Structures are given as C-alpha cells and as structure tokens.
Amino acid sequence: MSYVVGVDIGATYTRVVLADSDARIVDRDKFETPREHPLAPTAAIAESVRRLLRRNRVPEGALRGIGIGSIGPLDMRRGIIVRAANLPLENVPIVRPLREEFGVPVYLVNDCVAAVIGERFFGAGRGHDDLVYITISTGIGGGVYVNGHLLLGKDGNAHEIGHMVIDSQGKLVCGCGKRGHWEAYSSGSGIPKLARLLAGERPELAGESELRTLGLERVSARDVYDAAKRGDRFAVEVVREASRYNAMGVANVINVYDPSLITVGGSVALNNVELVVEPLKGLVPEYAINRPPEIKVTPLGDDVGIYGALALALGLETLPKGFTQ
Ligand SMILES: [Zn+2]
User: Fold this and answer.
1) Is residue 198 left, alpha or beta, with left meaning phi > 0 and alpha meaning psi from -120 to 50?
2) Domain-embedded: residue 325
3) Which of 7, 58, 276, 294 has the most CB atoms at less than 10 Å from its CB?
4) Are residues 48 and 67 in the same domain?
5) C-alpha 55 to ligand 1 mean position (Å)
6) pTM (2 decimals)?
7) What tens digit of pLDDT does each residue of 189-213 get?
8) 215-271 per-position pLDDT tens digit
9) Distance 164 CA to ligand 1 centre (A)
10) What is the 172 CA–ligand 1 centroid distance (Å)?
C-alpha cells in the first residue's frame, strides 16, 4: 500500500492530511502556521508528516509524494513562498527542504490552483475541461482550466482575479496597496471597507443601522451578513452592493476564460450562500457576454485545496517542466 500527503498552507492554519493511493483521507493534522522564521513553516510540515506516518504505522518508504497548496504569491520555479498577506515572512523555502527530508516528489501550487485541481478530479468539475474555481474568503482568488490546461503564468500566479480592477474611480484601497481591485469591495476584508464607504454616501440609511451601534470601524464581514439576514436595511444595501461587485468580477472571469462551470468556495461564500452565490445568477448576465456557465458552490467545502494537493501528489495532474524541481 502506498500513501501520499496533501498540505494546505494558510495565513492562520496549516492543514496536513495523509491519504491512500485512492485519495481516501486516512488521517489529518492541523497547526498554527509558524511565523517566527522563514524555515519554521517547512520544519513544522515535516514534523506533522512524520507524526501522521507514525500514528498510522506507515513506513516512510510507503510515502509516494507530497502536494502543497499555499497562500502566495509563490515563485513556483524555485518552490518558495515569496511573501504572503497576513504572514510576516518572505522567501519561505518549501519544496527543496521537504524533498530532501523525505526523498519523494514535492509539488507546490497557489492555494486556488490546488482548489481548481481538486474540483476537477474529485469535485463538481469532473467531466469539465473549462473550469474556474473562485474563493471568496479574507481575499478573493481563483484557479483556472482552459481546454483541459491548467493556467499558471510565468511564476505560477496567472489567476490573481481578486486584483482585477472593477471600480475605475478606485474608491477603495486593496490589501495589496492598489486601488479599485475586486477584493477591496466584497471579500471578507473588503466588506467592512465597503460598509464604511456606503455609510459616508448614505448617512441617513446608516444612521439607523445596528452596524452603527456595533461601531462601523469595528464591524466584520460576518457582522454585515448577519445583520442583512436579520433585515437591517443598511446591511442589506451593503450586501446588494457587494453582490454587484462580485457579479462584475465573475462576469470578467466568464468573458476572459469562457468556462462551462464556475465553482465558488471560501468562508464568506460558504457561510452566506443565499447572499453571496445565489444573487450572481441574476446579476452576472448584466455584465457577461459569453454563454453563461453553471455557477455552484463547491461540494468539497474547505477540503477542495487539500484534494488538489493530493491529486498532484498522486500524479493525476502534472505540472509543466520548469514548475517542478
Ligand atoms: Zn489588490
């Protein structure tokens, strides 16, 4: 029996799973992503892999490969995380230390690339050659297949769809420092900024909102969606405006990639399906020119990226030359 490991490196948590050769998950581990030193995350992953092997009585020789989906941007050719939003580390070496430690192939891709691979081989994307996965979480990101080809770009970051410009006036500043990006308006980090922007434009509506009572400087995306679900008129307006920005972003994705399926994941989308995903169906046609794809929530939930990492480790998807070390 042979085994593979799938890893999901997030800004807050890193998750590691052990799976058999049919991608059945045997065991899981999760820890806070270490942030004290650039070598610490990889050391913690190695430790976790050894722990999982030991705990399941798997000899190290039975390990076939390790797949990793990670926050980025990455330099895939060098197998490193160049830097990461919300993680105070730069140039984190991932691939080489793990390959030297375990003597197996190690594959590193952007977390949304891992997610679209997971969707294609294990989720709703089976049978689709043209497929986009979109995460709406703290940030907004995507992974893309066109004609069965995984899109990567020169460094493996070909799909930073959250940083598409959707507001020419650039009223809000994105976490990346630039203006007018999709992520700045309707991601988990963007929604509170959008609420403050609208409160400035519509003070009479904001004045009677429970978000005003909570303190507009302190509200989270969850506060806004929860208030909207209770019928708070201002929160409903913020959510409606966020949906319009999401529709523009998704329409741009449809116009440039022409997918037959878009799956949506990420905590903001998964926790508010009726308010985030459902409105897209009505709004996207206002902006999209290509024949509309099916749009649905990923059936793999939080594990979509983990499954992509496993698909890489199992050799179901192969990365082009130059993107593996
Ligand atoms: Zn940006």
Assistant:
1) alpha
2) no
3) 7
4) yes
5) 42
6) 0.94
7) 999 999 999 999 999 999 989 999 8
8) 999 999 999 999 999 999 999 999 999 999 999 999 999 999 999 999 999 999 999
9) 7
10) 10
